[in-house]
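Exercise 7.
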Amino acid sequence: MAKYLLLKHYRGAPAAVNDVPMDRWTPAEVTAHIQYMQDFATRLEGTGEFVDGQALAPDGMWVRSDGEGRPPVTDGPFAETKDLIAGWMIIDVDSQDRAVELAGELSAAPGAGGKPIHEWLEVRPFLAAPPTITE
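Solution. The predicted structure, written as tokens, is:
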């Protein structure tokens, strides 16, 4: 089994087929989308493939160290100008093919008008072992 991170980008990914921003959906469309996501996770819990998943708020910032004894440096919040990750899901599957299959299914969550979004999801494998350094 291998773990994969499925990232749902709100901004910063290629445009979806049904590319209507969520802030323009009706409350019923938002509810249907969230229910699809919950049902998807529940089904994967039943197969043992679901690890975790969360939706993310649009607020956030970049943070980095500015050196010992100095406060961290922040950049933000400027969510309107940055890539925005809407949420993520971690799955534990037998193969990359299965991860791609599930990501494809998840990308068809309903959006505006109840039609599938067909959004692009980023599929990232977890690092299985630390890299070997040879000199």
